[in-house]
């Protein structure tokens, strides 16, 4: 992938109770190139009266695009594929196509036998269809706990429309090192989520993941080192997504949350580019200019 991957603010970073217009406005003023949406955000926005074309128009007024859609779970066993989960899966696929996003994020919380996970993941890729890539995210408390397991699932499933999502928080808490990247082809890493971790893990880990992350470069996860290693490997993700899920950050307000994580992310990307040992540095990500009301 050529060019500089766009900087996108993931859904959870700005909170769950944010209108679509407020989300887009805050992202634009912080200098992001796009926003991410979860199925729940999409449903809320549709209930508020906005159509798909309305959402595209609102985003376009601010010079943004919807660039990340998520999150497919509960696909590992038929018993977990409830009507709600099936509806969410269909919604995420619809969002990707409606907004021109070529990948969608998926993870598996249930701890199942490896063969079952592989078979279920292959079936998920088949249901999604060849025009979209399923980005599998490993999470240390999940059925796919680390990068090696996620890559093995992709290899065994053998689906060309599959890829990997690497999240700094999960990377750090799973104890990954840059050596773990070696067997994974660069082009199979399709998305990277930037954030950081506190010095000591919480118990349970999932509670920390869903409310106590830090902005990238402001914790103990070595976000700069990971980004540098990905660049040197030749990884060019579809997006640099910023997923700082933090109760404290959301409490500051959507505008301040967006500015805080945007500044931190640009600093991490700039430092990683400046200290890379191979390859040409990517162009700097510009800060936002003041934007008018649409």
Explain the overall architecture.
The chain has an 8-stranded parallel beta sheet. It is built from 11 helices and 8 strands. The longest helix is centred in the C-terminal third of the chain and has 22 residues, at 254-275. Helices cover 41% and strands 13% of the residues. Helix 7 links the parallel strand 6 and strand 7. The protein has a single domain, classed as Divalent-metal-dependent TIM barrel enzymes (TIM Barrel), CATH 3.20.20.150. It is globular. The relative contact order is 0.15. It is of the alpha/beta class.
Give a brief outline of the structure.
This protein has 294 residues and is of the alpha/beta class.
Count of discrete domains: 1
Question: What is the fold-level CATH name, i.e. the topology?
Answer: TIM Barrel
Following the backbone from N to C, one meets helices and strands in this order, namely EHEHHEHEHEHEHEHHEHH
Give the CATH H-level superfamily: Divalent-metal-dependent TIM barrel enzymes
Q: Characterize the main sheet.
A: 8 strands, parallel
Shape: globular
Strand content: 5-15%
Measure the end-to-end span: 32 Å
Give the uncertain stretches in residue-range form.
283-294
Q: What's the count of strands?
A: 8
The value of Rg in angstroms is 18 Å
Q: What CATH first level would be assigned?
A: Alpha Beta
Spatial order of the strands forming the largest sheet: 3-2-1-8-7-6-5-4
Under the CATH scheme, which architecture would be assigned?
Answer: Alpha-Beta Barrel
* Mean pLDDT across all amino acids: 94
Percent of residues in helices comes to 40-55%
Please tally the helical runs, counting DSSP H or I stretches of 4 or more residues. 11
